[in-house]
Specification:
The complex is a heterodimer. By secondary structure, chain A is α+β, with helices and mostly antiparallel strands. Chain A has ten helices and 24 strands. In chain A, strands 1, 2, 3, 4, 5, 6, 7 and 8 form an eight-stranded mixed beta sheet that branches. In chain A, strand 2 and strand 3 form a beta hairpin. In chain A, helix 1 runs parallel beside helix 2 and helix 3 packs parallel to helix 5. Chain A starts with 12 loop residues before the first helix and ends with a strand. Chain B starts with 14 loop residues before the first helix and ends with a strand. Classes of the chains: A alpha+beta, B alpha+beta. At the A-B interface, strand 1, strand 2, strand 3, helix 2 and helix 3 of A face strand 2, strand 3, helix 2, strand 6 and helix 10 of B.
Amino acid sequence: MPTTTTWQPALDRQLARDVLAEALACGATFAELFVEDARSRRIALIDQRIKEVSSSHAFGVGLRIVQGHRATYGFTSDASRQALLTLARALATSDPGTDAVVPAPFAPSSLAACRGEDWDAAARVDLLRRADRAARGRDGRIAQVEASIEENTQRVLVANSEGCWVTEERPYARMFIQAIAAEGGAQQVASRSPGRAEGAGFLLGLDVEALAEDAAEAAATMLAADHCPAGRMPVIIDKGFGGVIFHEACGHLLETTSVAPGASIFAGRLGEEIAHPAVTAIDDGTLAGEWGSVGHDDEGLPTQRTVLIREGRLEAYLADRIGAERVGVARTGSGRRQSYRFAPASRMRNTFIAPGDATLDELIAEVPYGLYARRMGGGSVVPGTGDFNFSVREAFIIRDGRIAEPVRGATLLGNGADILKRISKVGRDLELAAGMCGSISGSIPVNVGQPPLRVDEITVGGRS
Amino acid sequence: MSASPAAADHPFLGAAGDALANAGLDEARRLGVGVEIYLAASRSTQVRVQEGKVESFTVADSRGAGVRVFRDGRIGVASTEVMEPEALRQAVAEAAAITAWLEPMPGQDLPRVEGSLPYLDLASPSLRQVSVEARISRVLELDALAREADPRVKTVVGASWGDVAAHVRLCSSAGLQRSWSMDTAWAAVSPLVAEGTQTKNGRKVVAAREFSAFVPGQMAREAVEDGLLQLGASEVPSGRYPVVFTAEAWADMLGVFAGLFSAKAAEEGKSLLRGREGERLAASCLTIVDDPLLREGMAARPCDDEGVPSRPHDLIRDGHLGGLLHNVATAARAGGRSTGHAARASYKGGLGVGTSNLVVAAGRESEAGLRAGASVIEVRDVTGLHAGANAISGDFSLQAHGLWHREGRAPVPVHLFTVSGNFLDLLAQVEALGQQIHVLPSGVLTPEVRVGGLSIAGT
């Protein structure tokens, strides 16, 4: 397998300067180039066989031209001078403004690149096989195990008309283990999928047996589960992926993409108390090696730690360049995109609710009857209204302060503004969990996270 | 080759395309392996309008090559976006090297695909001739008409346009040479309407191959109407109700569970339909056909992603499960022939099995008749499909909104309820289908569907 080497952007500074100048020639105020060269590999096991190994190489250049709050964007995989100048002319705004802005000289900066590594297939095959054995060994009802490893190295260059010239290399590694339990025609599935923004060392250090056994046990447990009863009740949402509730119900509504057009229920509410005082929420891109961390955002600004809500009070929105201007707030290093195929937008990084004091046991003990959401699934939110819906993959009924029978098919239904006031107690054990977040600028790696916490009352969907 | 009028625009039918294809074929010959080369290109424009102004405008020129190298029952996969002969050679070499790590599987020899393609012209020269300015002004008009349609419209969250002209050339060291082109365009508008303390989102999406299909006045009216219908919504008492799915909601349900018909999913133990071909699984009034040849469906295609000519395939006929959907490899393992349902998400990654247009046969009921009864829930929209629907277990539990119809009373809007059940029960409980077929942007063509009894959890 080829090894990666130190990256030289396939675009020299003179060409970048000429393209930016061409883009600005019709009177735009800002222009930006985003060059991406990404290599990824995937290896997958299913049916106890290594069934897929694939490799891909993505390459392209995105060009954004901004005039006021209006952006035009284009991209091409052809980085020749002719192709890029043609793209610039196609995008340049057709109503000339005043004087053309002259691009500023570039001021280069870059994040220390991670070392290229040999891709050792044998080590990965071993990880996959260990996961398969452990999951099947945990419970005889495990009928299928699917395990895969995805690694990606994204190299980017951001160059803009204000003199920014940032190069960065971003390694990602993630392992995915899914166990399917089957019994009497019914099937249940559970998965575990840790990921970090670092090289293969993370994968090789994983306790795959523990992850696989955990997934197998969860799938087998859900086989015996009856349908979740519906109704309004207190819910204890456990740590880690439980943070998806905040991500979906609040995080997206704090992105300037939804604040700027007034489409968010949190628009115009900076400084107001929007959550229970127990809630402090942070979006942090600086955590070393975390799945949602970056050195710079995809607009070339160093990443930041942004306190969104402090003890219930709204402190900040997540702002990209255009969003910051539209809302009138400072940029937070939150301009992100999936690839050169997307213009950047305000997006989350590692978003979590800060830890409090309680233990999980204490939280459960205080509930006479309710739901313990051990592991959340995905969800979605209607931006305009804040109404959300997400699934609980592994759920149990709480009776008399104790975890009782497992239930399946539970969903949590509510509203972002409403639930923030109902999170009344936050536990001490913070955990982050990797996920992919899809939105206007594509699908990007983010962590969600939280300690276990109590929601006083929420609508649980299930079968009545 | 399909005799398409768009052939002249095909970026890979010419010297440059030949050079790419030949570089990959030559490298495979040198390495003594079989190869399939998939060259894909698309040009697209996207426009998003907010508050009467163009908020974003995107021009995309996307190209990539995917190769599958076949060696002794193993398939190595690689892709590149650098469209140069040297990059193709490298991709083939890498895919060949990858095969060393794979385990052989039966049926994984280089496909020998036969047959000529049916005539199916999916290119739309008229759409391509519409100027950028005309596309933009149509979205501006859509946004303006939606804002003016009713005083309760607060804002329009998004009015957007997208179009794509896609081209594929597929060739292999077994002598396969295919190429096709297709044009699609879509427009969407989503007004936010408010009354009292309630705010609701309306929505209308249209997809078509002709510019004339996008009628801003009608789209704006329907989107606003969709929002207004939800205003004043209350919660519905929990219980079992007969449920009418609108075509949009039914299409979403089918889309989520369509993967169950895949023979690949069945092989991997991920389909509840495994081994049940021919069984009576659904109500006898239900027939669902996968039909790639219907030009009005947005998932139409002349052949699948292995070049196997398209033809209609019964998924469910009068309640009985037809055959599952196969690509060349899954068919070989099952001892049959490909049904022409090889699918790849893009030039990247491996090849699986996928549906094309899903066509649900019309029934006899009027749309009013479907809603008749003492107490019927009309589900107009389901959300959170990726969260609340499990394609492996077949279970779903989805947030929905719609209307509550009761005999002798005006229908009332209801919201924030969950509709839940299992996909197989859903198919078995279909009671009636509407007479009118609706064409949805996702490539589903379906009437409205009434289901006997589903669990509704509200208050």
